[in-house]
Amino acid sequence: MNPRILSVLRSTIPGVLVLASTLAQAQLSIEITGAGANRMPVAVASFEGESTLPRAVTDVVRADLERSGLFKMVELGPTPIGADAPVDFARIQSKGADAVAVGTVSPSGSGRYQVQVRLIDAAKQAGLGSQMMVMAPAQYRTTGHRIADFIYEKLTGEPGVFSTRIAYVLKSGSRYELQIADADGSNAQTALASKEPIISPSWSPDGSRLAYVSFEAKKPVVYVHSLATGQRNVAANFKGSNSAPAWAPDGRRLAVVLTKDGQSQLYSVNADGSGVQRLASSSGIDTEPSWSADGMIYFTSDRGGSPQIYRVPSGGGEAQRVTFEGSYNVSPRPSPDGKSLVYVSRNGGRFQITMLDLASRQTQILTDSSKDESPSFAPNGRMVLYATEVGGRGVLAAVSSDGRVKQRLSVQSGDVREPAWGPQPRN
Amino acid sequence: MKYTRLALSLVAVGLLAACSSAPKTGADQGAAVEDRSSGASSAGIDSNRVVAVDANAASGTGLAALKDPKSILSKRSVLFDYDSYVIKDQYRSLIEAHAKFLVANPKMKMLIQGNTDERGSREYNLALGQKRADTVKKALSLLGVTEGQLESVSLGEEKPSCGDASEACWSANRRGDMLYSGEF
């Protein structure tokens, strides 16, 4: 890889999250409120043969890369450049692009198309890689996201998250909808509609199911919901409250919070609701469990007098306090690599997204808002999606792990809340 | 029976006095809209008006009182102070009346829903709301209501009775609601 590209990218942080929309009523729109300091100039040429498609794939690719806050898109004009065509490097360099993607779209029979993409280092005049896909015309968005992921990974060395999905709750009047959308906000679909609140959606590791808390029975009950079929089952409905589901990395068990034996305490259950077991015990409140890749469960507890973050080995053992600064630290989420922790801290009455480096113990407040809630990491660990409030309305926002890239996502009317960033799709 | 009632009342007085704190003003109390009655402020209980529940009436007449705006039993909300989980003195007669009703109607069940204001984490607030519901449940249990009749749950910050970001609203939202069989 071009060392120049690497050095540029080292000083910025990849990001993603674009929300345009297809639904008029719940149109998620995005506002970019911060970008990386040194965005890398990249060109995506129009693909040869692309005009035969109903919608241009490269529009999706450019929008993804631009909105990541990491890349500055360089315009090359409407003339297509094929995957195998000679590239006019003098022209690319004169436009200032460090890298250029070129491609060819051609019919592959049965109404499908083959898409060939080649990524080229403009300075070295050398190929960085190529990709070939077959698509139906209606899949132009999915294909565009996969191409953006390919370019992102080749240029940053890390997987992109353009093909992931997010879950969130839309509240309009007295109606609650658990919605699933692509990471760019398109294709929003309602998984559950209810007159009662829905909170705490949690993605299964394979992305096929969501666990959540629904109040449709006039009390909090944990459900597991298969997105493709709409089938769902009760995972926890014990006497008292049932809440805060979190999938174990194996995708078989869930950590939940139950009050069947007194105050809110941590348990685990199988996804079908069987096999309930205690995970930890305290004389106070234990809630908001979240599993880390290294087998720890991070959670919120007021056992020390104020709500703070603790962790306990998922197989049992002594709980260890993790946060010490301030009197209100809640909603912990370990990063995918297990090296850092994001949570909500209260600072002088403001609730803000905070990052803790677990090795150095350094903390950084990532936001300048005051009603932040429910952080969740993108699967590549580079962005944090969370809920906040702007002008009295619930919106979603995303911030990069270094606090530089910032995006805000809102609907025209209604509140958006309780976001959860889904895992990488399994192809 | 009268002896039992007296004994229960004494327990209640002791319990409530032990965890009472300064009462709020009437203005705050009037904000609760979970009140099933019409017009009257839900929490501003007239301490002189204690409805006499016939302990022998296992069903029928007693049930009507649950929805009668003139009956204390139509009052269902207990408000809490900020960061507090103790029942204030002013709710003594309300808790006693509901305990008496449940003792007299052992087939009746009650769902106690704890609520919080909107500030902070939804899940942590759910746990705090549970503490409020548990407090109400414990008070009723100590007055003789059987465990099987009571379930305490939390709605956290999800079902505010008042939607503004103001202290008046927040205090109205820090409440425990009592629902009877057929109401949940």
Automatic annotation (TrEMBL), chain A:
BP GO terms, sorted: cell division; protein import
Subcellular locations according to the entry: Periplasm
Signal peptide from the UniProt entry: 1-26
InterPro entries to which the protein is assigned, alphabetical: 6-blade_b-propeller_TolB-like (IPR011042), Tol-Pal_TolB (IPR014167), TolB_N (IPR007195), WD40 (IPR011659)
Record's keyword annotation contains Cell cycle: yes
Keywords, alphabetical: Cell cycle, Cell division, Periplasm, Signal
SUPFAM superfamilies: TolB, N-terminal domain (SSF52964), Tricorn protease N-terminal domain (SSF69304)
Region (Disordered): 404-427
GO cellular component: periplasmic space
Domain named TolB N-terminal: residues: 28-126
Coiled coil region boundaries: none
Top-level taxon of origin: Bacteria
Family assignment from sequence similarity: Belongs to the TolB family.
Biological role stated in the UniProt entry: Part of the Tol-Pal system, which plays a role in outer membrane invagination during cell division and is important for maintaining outer membrane integrity.
Assembly information from the UniProt record: The Tol-Pal system is composed of five core proteins: the inner membrane proteins TolA, TolQ and TolR, the periplasmic protein TolB and the outer membrane protein Pal. They form a network linking the inner and outer membranes and the peptidoglycan layer.
Protein name: Tol-Pal system protein TolB
This protein's encoding gene: tolB
From TrEMBL, chain B:
GO biological process entries: cell division
Subcellular location: Cell outer membrane
Membrane topology according to the record: Lipid-anchor
Coiled-coil region(s): none
Keyword set, alphabetical order: Cell cycle, Cell division, Cell outer membrane, Lipoprotein, Membrane, Palmitate, Signal
Signal peptide annotation: 1-17
OmpA-like domain ranges (all copies): 67-184
Recorded superkingdom: Bacteria
GO CC aspect terms: cell outer membrane
InterPro entries: Bact_OuterMem_StrucFunc (IPR050330), OMP_bac (IPR006664), OmpA-like (IPR006665), OMPA-like_CS (IPR006690), OmpA-like_sf (IPR036737), Pal (IPR039001), Pal_lipo_C (IPR014169)
PANTHER family registered for this protein in UniProt: LIPOPROTEIN YIAD-RELATED, STATOR ELEMENT OF FLAGELLAR MOTOR COMPLEX
Purpose of the protein: Part of the Tol-Pal system, which plays a role in outer membrane invagination during cell division and is important for maintaining outer membrane integrity.
Record-stated family: Belongs to the Pal lipoprotein family.
SUBUNIT field: The Tol-Pal system is composed of five core proteins: the inner membrane proteins TolA, TolQ and TolR, the periplasmic protein TolB and the outer membrane protein Pal. They form a network linking the inner and outer membranes and the peptidoglycan layer.
Protein name (Swiss-Prot/TrEMBL): Peptidoglycan-associated lipoprotein
Species assigned in the record: Zoogloea oleivorans
Lineage of the species this protein comes from: Bacteria, Pseudomonadati, Pseudomonadota, Betaproteobacteria, Rhodocyclales
